[in-house]
Amino acid sequence: MAESTTTAHPAQSPHPLQDRVAIVTGASRGIGRAIALHLASLGAKVLINYTSNRALADEVAAHINSTSTGSTPRAVTFRANISDAAQVKSLFDAAEAAFNSPIQILVNSAGVLDSKYPTLADTTDEDFDTTFNVNCRGAFFCCREAANRIKRGGGGRIICMTTSVVGSLKPGYSAYTASKAAVEAMVKTLAKELKGTGITANSVAPGAVATEMFFAGKTEEMVNRAVEECPLGRLGETEDVAPVVGFLASDAGQWVNGQVIRVNGGGYV
Ligand SMILES: NC(=O)c1ccc[n+]([C@@H]2O[C@H](COP(=O)([O-])OP(=O)(O)OC[C@H]3O[C@@H](n4cnc5c(N)ncnc54)[C@H](OP(=O)(O)O)[C@@H]3O)[C@@H](O)[C@H]2O)c1
């Protein structure tokens, strides 16, 4: 049968996420910030989550609201430590109340990395717990809340930021890698458990992306090595990752489910 040339595919709309409500955790800085700005540019209403940098989160929201034409804000901020279940519940409550709507999209970008890059032998109990509390427990709380509360019937999206290091298994990242590998396993399982809801669940696994997290504690040599390892010969930018999340969040991305999408320019694999 010939393809219709008259029906506009949702992917062709300039605002494929028009008025969908999204929560982006860790959106005050880095990759989460770029994702929040991108989802808003696609028409979404966005809750900007942060844990300490209120001023930066406010700037992201102000930027989105300055470009919107309506009288009600399209972006709000909310402080919540994602490693605390009660705070994650409050985060979802805040998004529903701010936009008077159920949530359709969760992007969990909040994360931490031990900038000492310890070998497993040198990883302290405290550093292991900090890493797992935010990256794994935090992702679990966000996914659990999302699984129970995201709108059924289509357009529901759960997207967790993991890391390409789960593939490359670099020395110095054992707790971090393990915390993200656990998330990838949870998200794949969750995608199956959400059968019948129309909600998809995926992980997006960046390689080296030029953010505070990436540069923290790295020598010039370590940074240069990341560039050399990448076939495209540079570090990733936050804007390299955000459109992939935007695609997964849109109706055009509905057939991608239970996957880990590595976004790394061919490096860090
Ligand atoms: N950059 C990379 O090379 C890279 C590579 C692969 C994967 N990733 C992953 O991508 C995600 C974003 O990384 P990034 O480079 O953008 O990091 P980043 O620049 O360090 O930003 C981290 C963000 O997470 C927030 N955050 C940290 N702990 C939190 C908590 N307990 N509760 C709520 N928010 C919290 C921070 O909020 P405040 O500003 O309030 O502190 C900030 O918004 C992370 O999950 C990271 O593991 C990054």
UniProtKB/TrEMBL annotation:
Pfam families cross-referenced by the UniProt entry: adh_short_C2
MF terms in GO: oxidoreductase activity, acting on the CH-OH group of donors, NAD or NADP as acceptor
SMART domains: PKS_KR
Classification via InterPro entries: KR_dom (IPR057326), NAD(P)-bd_dom_sf (IPR036291), SDR_fam (IPR002347)
UniProt-recorded name of the protein: Ketoreductase domain-containing protein
Swiss-Prot/TrEMBL keywords: Oxidoreductase
PANTHER family: NADPH-DEPENDENT ALDEHYDE REDUCTASE-LIKE PROTEIN, CHLOROPLASTIC-RELATED, RE15974P
Family indicated by similarity: Belongs to the short-chain dehydrogenases/reductases (SDR) family.
Domain Ketoreductase: 20-207
The organism's place on the tree of life at top rank: Eukaryota
